[in-house]
Each structure stands twice: as structure tokens, then as C-alpha cells.
Amino acid sequence: ALLTLSRLDSGIATLEAWPININELVGELHDLFAPLFDENDMTLKFSGGENMKLAGDANLLGQALVNLMENALAHGAANGSSVELAARQEGDKVILSLADGGRGIAPERRRDALDRFVQLDASRSTGGHGLGLSLVAAICAHHGGELHLADNQPGLRVEMHLPVKA
């Protein structure tokens, strides 16, 4: 993650923009992660629009979504809760989101959550290095998009707003 962040920040990494079928990418990740959520007494749901395409790097976008799902498994969702992985198009943007039913992040701490090496809960025993959300934000920026953190009431909603043509 640190190497990827370094490459994205330095400009060494150039955007390998190819047409991506968003529903296919997100659907495959859903199918891969759904059993892990089941094992943790959680449900991973998927909702998406039809035939959404985006010019971008499928590997990086996949890595961003994997980070979000791993965060939800480790920190964001409670046993018995549902987590929703979604893709939708609004005008010239594709919005990829993950919404959990956990404790969420207080509005005043959301900007901190995007900084590198920040762990919001000092008592956290699940490991991690505080790079997940900062990497997702860097991948969004690399695609000309933005990362938004919002209240899911309860929980956290993370949205990647990406231009259709990166």
C-alpha cells in the first residue's frame, strides 16, 4: 500500500485507463467477499445499474474496493449487520460506495481518517497500519475523482466519485 501511495503521489504511476465494466468488476468482488462476510455473521449486498462503463485502471479500482471491504470486515460492521456494496451512475460520474452498519466515524474525525498512518481507535486490536482510506483517496484522485465519507445512520458510507472518462 505504501509503495502504491508513493507511486501515485510522485506521479511515477500513470493512469492506465481502459474501458471497465463496473458491474462486472464490483460483482466479481462481491462474489469473492460475500463468503467472508457470511463467516463473520454479516451480509454483503450488491446493487448496481446496468451496463456502466468507466475509463480507468481496474486493478487500482479493485484494490480500493478490497480495502473498503476489508475495513468493513475489521472495523466497520457489527455481527448480524448488512454491508452494501453499490455502483450507480449520476450524470458524468460513476459512484462506487460501501455502506456499513457499524460505529461509523464522527464528522470531525473524517478528514483525519484519510491521513496516512492514522488509526482512529487507539485501542483497536485488529491490526492495520492506517493506510487503507488514504490509499482509496489516492486511487480516486489518480482517476480524477474524489472520496467522500458520510454518515450511514448507523455506520459509515464511503463513496468514490469517479468521472466516466478518467
Topology, element by element:
Blueprint: H1 2-10, E1 18-21, H2 22-39, E2 43-48, E3 53-56, H3 58-76, E4 82-90, E5 93-99, H4 110-113, H5 132-142, E6 146-151, E7 156-163
Parallel strand pairs: 2-4
Antiparallel strand pairs: 1-3, 4-5, 5-7, 6-7
Helix pairs in contact: 1-5, 2-3, 3-5
Name the structural class: alpha+beta
Helix content: 25-40%
Largest sheet: 5 strands, mixed
- How big is the Rg? 15 Å
The portion of residues forming beta strands comes to: 25-35%
Number of strands: 7
Please, how many helices? Answer: 5
H and E string: HEHEEHEEHHEE
- For the record, give the distance between the C-alpha atoms at the N and C termini, rounded to a whole number: 22 Å
Mean pLDDT across every amino acid position? 82
